[in-house]
C-alpha cells in the first residue's frame, strides 16, 4: 500500500462517513431551529453568525484533512524540504524508521493507518481520515474550536426557542412565521 497523502484519500474509516452525516445533520437542524424562532431585530445577525461559524468549521476541517503531515525527512519527494532538528546532524546519527526504511526526525512516529512517518504525531484522526501532527495541528485546533463555537451557538439558540415557546406559546406562534415572506407564502 502506498502511504496515504492526506485525508481525502481512501480507505475511509466509518467515522468519516458518520462525521459527514453529523455535520450535514446538525447544519439542517440548526437552520430549522433558526427558521422557527420568533422574529426579532437580531434575526439577520443570528443568521450571519450561523453561516460564518458553519463555513469556518467546514473549511478548517477540510484544510486539516488536506494537509499532508508527513515527516519530509523520510519522504522520497526530490523537492522535499527535510524536517531535520539541526543541519549539523549527520545522516548516520539520525533516527531511522524500520517500516519506512528511511531516516526520520527524532520527533516523528510511524502511523500504521497512513503508512508513513508523521512529524510530532499527536494521533490518527479517523473522523478527518488523517494524522494530526505538527503540520496540521493548528488547523485541527481551529476545527475543534469552530465545531465547539457552532454547537454552543446552536444549543443556545435552541434553548432560546424552547424558553420562548414555553413562556409565551401564543406570541411564539404569531411571530414565528417571520421567514414566510422570504419563501413567498405569506398568509
Ligand atoms: Zn515510518
Ligand atoms: Zn495516520
Quick one: biggest sheet? 2 strands, antiparallel
How many β-strand stretches? 6
Order of helices and strands: HHEEEEEEHHH
Helix percent reads 40-55%
Unreliable runs:
180-187
Radius of gyration, rounded? 23 Å
- The helix/strand class is mainly alpha
How many helical stretches? 5
Chemical compounds bound to the protein: zinc ion
Strand fraction: 5-15%
Global geometry: elongated
Trace the largest sheet across and list its strands. 1-2
Mean of residue pLDDT? 82
The CA-CA distance between the termini, in Å, is: 61 Å
Give the structure's gist in a few sentences:
It is built from 5 helices and 6 strands. The chain is mostly helical.
Features:
187 residues, two-stranded antiparallel ribbon, 6 strands, elongated, binds zinc ion
Characterise this structure.
α2 runs antiparallel to α3. 26% of the residues are buried. It is elongated, with a radius of gyration of 23 Å. The longest helix has 31 residues. It has a domain of 121 residues. 48% of the residues lie in helices and 10% in strands. A hairpin with a 4-residue loop joins β1 and β2. The chain is built from 5 helices and 6 strands, in the order ααββββββααα. It is mostly helical and 187 residues long. Strands 1-2 form a two-stranded antiparallel sheet. A two-stranded antiparallel sheet has the order 3-4. A two-stranded antiparallel sheet has the order 5-6. It binds zinc ion (2 copies).
